[in-house]
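@channel sequence for tomorrow's demo:
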Amino acid sequence: MCVLTQLSESLNKKQNRGFLFAFGLIALISLLEVVTLKVDGLPKKFRWINIVSNYLGFGLTPSVCICLVYVLDKKTKLRWEFKLAILWEVVYLLILALSIPLYFQ
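structure tokens (generated this afternoon):
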């Protein structure tokens, strides 16, 4: 995907960056899934790694869709609906981040 976006002449710079960013997010989510699977079954002291990687994987998944919508939007100015989607994604990540310590009480 990276090579195709770099070689494509029909994508503008915004689309090129956006597709590469979406690909990076997908790669990061996949890496987090691998970490989750590798840590699963290890002693209890490693459980926090499993929880954090699982939460980040779930938390970042909607970001891929948001990124692709941004890339495919033909307008250069961000619409309020898109800004609202970004806001909800940030709120979702914050809720996940704040709920992680609850597992360690």
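heads up for whoever presents: Residues 2-104 form one domain.
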